[in-house]
Specification:
Helix content: 25-40%
Order of helices and strands: EHEHEEHEE
Number of strands: 6
Oligomer: single chain
Strand content: 35-45%
């Protein structure tokens, strides 16, 4: 049906990855309505930073679609190409969290992660 190009800026790579989660999940539901009732830890490794971003967003989508888990808060730590995230959320409810559109997946097309000593910018495309 279409695509959504998302851009996230932050002062650190961790801040950008956290922001990418909120932007990505915000395509489907109202992230601000999610209560932090359940805590989970995610650990991922990528072969480059774009792959790590892809795997991060893919994991969040799998949690939503396969486990009906809506993430409302994320705290990310990245060391080299390893990500460890603490996430909080609750079971997704269309009535409580709303429904905006279905996200089918994430693509590498137009994906970029730019960092320097004082900022980060992430761009990625979601397949709707």
């Amino acid at each position: 049906m279409g695509d959504a190009l998302l851009e996230v800026e932050g002062s650190t790579i961790e801040e950008c990855f956290e922001g990418s989660a909120y932007a990505f999940l915000g395509l489907t539901y109202d992230v601000e309505k999610v209560k932090p009732k359940i805590h989970r830890t995610i650990e991922l490794e990528g072969f480059d930073i774009e792959n790590l971003l892809y795997r991060w967003l893919e994991k969040l989508l799998i949690l939503l679609t396969a486990e009906n888990f809506a993430v409302g808060k994320a705290s990310v730590k990245i060391n080299e190409l390893k990500l460890k995230a603490d996430i909080w959320g609750e079971l997704y409810s269309r009535k409580k969290h709303g429904f905006k559109r279905e996200v089918k997946g994430i693509t590498y097309h137009l994906m970029s992660v730019e960092t320097n000593s004082s900022s980060c910018k992430i761009r990625f495309l979601a397949d709707l």
